[in-house]
Specification:
4-stranded antiparallel sheet; globular; Alkaline Phosphatase, subunit A; 16 helices; alpha+beta; 10-stranded mixed sheet; Sulfatase_CS
């Protein structure tokens, strides 16, 4: 069989992010420049430093082991506790972050061609329509070092060069994930191998050098992207020639091992183990599809995975030092007070939860709920925010800070950063996250016994809904299976209420389970093919009169017939490795709902 690409491996008129607004206005209206951006800025546009780690978890407590990030970012900024990626794998997540568009709109859905990777990014016309290009148009100098996209290689780095960067130094495949043999490619120079040097230490020097370059141009604000590979697993690629004929043949081409820390950190955390949460290697099967086939891990398997976890924490220590060095250099140049620092990751990670081997690509909280920390002028210090944010909100946020016009095709909205904006968002911001995935899932740890490293059927569409009153995850898989978790009552997602073996509660939120499920399915039907503001305001697409703003409103009994009898349902006709619309059932953007509340579909269009 042909190996799918995934196997190889966001008064004064203030910007919406600072004013008391959640950014839900006209998406084509310029956000405007403030006369005063915040403490110490005196009318200058802010600088932006954006740190993007690779595969960093939130739910396995990685932030607890990063004292310098805690000191410089968490204590001095806001931690967004409900930040989500929308596709839990590297390249699609990064493209969504940098374009402000969901993967079903970029059609970059994998890490390698034909469905993803840097070549697909270029093919989709995105190389001239993403964040650095827009920031340059807004008058910013832009710099970047580290991992940009998967399948950005020593062979195609100039075909074409990534657009939008004043200066860059990219990690390149097939050495991106090789901690002690990385290849970087600076500006228009050929790639350089750094064999024997730790990749994050190399990256740190490059990042600090770019910061010096940026400071040398005080007349222009700057954006500096820093993308260390840690704590991604170490990956060695043995050949660029040919493609494995079968999944069993993959080990001849690529090998996954735990991350490799810098030698100075190799002795740390000797007694630390993966948090033993209720969903860690549970005695009973959980989830849906292939997840329910996983055997319980042996003691030997668990011990190896604990080692894998410690290696991740050790690898992150270099990132901790990097962040501190950047903060100290900004402070030394007198720029810290006029610079926003964003810290996030592309996707989350699991080790042992639901019996899963180390990896990502699932819709569980461990994989999609990820760190986001922001420090900067006007951002409350020591704050932990519960507002729902996603990767597609990051590009609108950063352009807002730059004073650039918002784009009509953004699928997200600016993240509230100021005290006033955060307070208003508690009342007015949306409560949903679109989650989607195509292709296979990969276990990155050690293979024990006759277990598989690959699971082919991992295509699904899902929605995460969070409020003070309720918390749900609802998913439809390409094989027709459904998942529903009442995450408020079941925070570790142990009981799939829609699996035939489950004994679901009689009621949910005081209503029959079927009523809640019908609303969630219709919401997902809109979100799985939504575009632009419909992705932010999906309930308005269903109720154009504006009388439904959230799931609570939609649960009114007067809408029972509307949701339970009149709507199309989310479905697939088959499983595919990438986005092929004819396999994904009816689409809201083309087929629409059968009947919008109060307006017949024929009258609406």
């Amino acid at each position: 069989m042909r190996l799918p690409g995934a196997a190889l491996a966001a008064g004064l008129q203030l910007p919406a992010v600072l004013a008391g607004s959640s950014g839900g206005g006209d998406s084509q209206k310029p956000l405007g420049l403030a006369d005063s951006w915040g403490p110490g800025l005196s009318g200058k546009r802010p600088n932006i430093v954006f740190v993007l780690t690779d595969d960093q978890d939130l739910h396995m407590q990685s932030l607890d082991y990063l004292p310098l990030i805690k000191k410089h970012l968490i204590n001095e900024g806001t931690l967004y506790k409900r930040h989500y990626c929308t596709t839990a794998i590297c390249c699609p997540a990064r493209v969504s972050l940098l374009t402000g568009r969901l993967a079903h709109n970029t059609n970059v859905t994998d890490v390698n061609p034909p469905y993803g990777g840097y070549p697909k990014f270029v093919h989709q016309g995105l190389n001239n329509a993403y964040l650095p290009v827009w920031l340059q148009e807004a008058g910013y100098n832009t710099y970047y070092t580290g991992k940009l996209f998967n399948a950005h290689t020593t062979e195609n780095y100039h075909s074409p060069y990534p657009a939008g960067w004043n200066s860059s130094d990219f990690l390149l495949d097939p050495y991106t994930y090789n901690y002690l043999n990385a290849s970087y490619q600076r500006n228009r120079d050929p790639p350089v191998s750094y064999q024997g040097q730790h990749t994050v230490d190399v990256l740190s020097q490059k990042a600090l050098g770019f910061l010096e370059d940026a400071v040398a141009h005080p007349d222009r604000p700057f954006f500096l992207g820093i993308a260390p590979v840690a704590p991604h697993s170490n990956v060695e690629a043995f050949s660029l020639d040919g493609t494995p004929d079968d999944l069993d043949d993959i080990e001849q081409f690529v090998r996954f091992t735990p991350p490799i820390p810098a030698a100075r950190h190799a002795h740390l955390f000797e007694d630390v183990i993966v948090p033993r949460t209720p969903n860690f290697n549970p005695s009973s099967v959980t989830g849906a599809s292939w997840v329910r086939t996983l055997p319980r891990q042996s003691a030997e398997n668990v011990a190896f995975n604990d080692h894998f976890y410690r290696q991740r924490l050790r690898a992150l220590q270099s990132v901790d030092e990097l962040v501190a060095a950047v903060v100290e250099k900004l402070e030394a140049h007198g720029l810290l007070g006029e610079t926003y620092i964003f810290y996030t990751t592309d996707n989350g990670y699991h080790i042992g939860q639901h019996r899963l081997q180390p990896g990502k690509e699932c819709g569980f909280e461990e994989d999609i709920n990820i760190p986001l920390i922001v420090r900067g002028p006007g951002v409350p210090a020591g704050e932990v925010s519960e507002v729902v944010t996603t990767h597609v909100d990051l590009a609108p946020t950063l352009l807002g800070l730059a004073g650039a016009p918002a784009r009509a095709d953004f699928d997200g909205e600016a993240i509230p950063l100021s005290r006033g904006a955060l307070d208003e968002a508690v009342v007015s911001r949306h409560e949903h996250v679109t989650v989607e995935f195509w292709g296979l899932a990969i276990g990155e740890g050690k293979v024990f016994g006759d277990q598989s490293r690959f699971w082919l059927n991992n295509t699904y569409k899902a929605v995460r809904v969070i409020s003070k009153e309720y918390s749900f995850y609802y998913a439809v898989w390409c094989n027709g299976e459904h998942e529903l978790y009442d995450v408020k009552a079941d925070p570790y997602q142990l009981t799939n209420l829609l699996h035939p073996s489950s004994t679901p509660p009689t009621t949910l939120l005081g209503l029959p389970l079927s009523k809640v499920t019908a609303r969630l399915d219709t919401l997902l039907f809109v979100l799985k093919s939504c575009k632009a503001q419909t992705c932010v305001r999906p309930w308005h697409a269903l109720h154009p009169a504006g009388n439904v703003q959230n799931l609570h409103d939609a649960l009114s009994g007067r809408f029972d017939v509307f949701y339970e009898q009149q709507q199309k349902r989310v479905s697939f006709s088959r499983c595919e490795y990438g986005q092929l619309l004819d396999a994904e059932g009816p689409q809201f953007e083309t087929d629409g709902v059968v009947y919008r509340q109060g307006v017949r579909w024929s009258e609406w269009v």
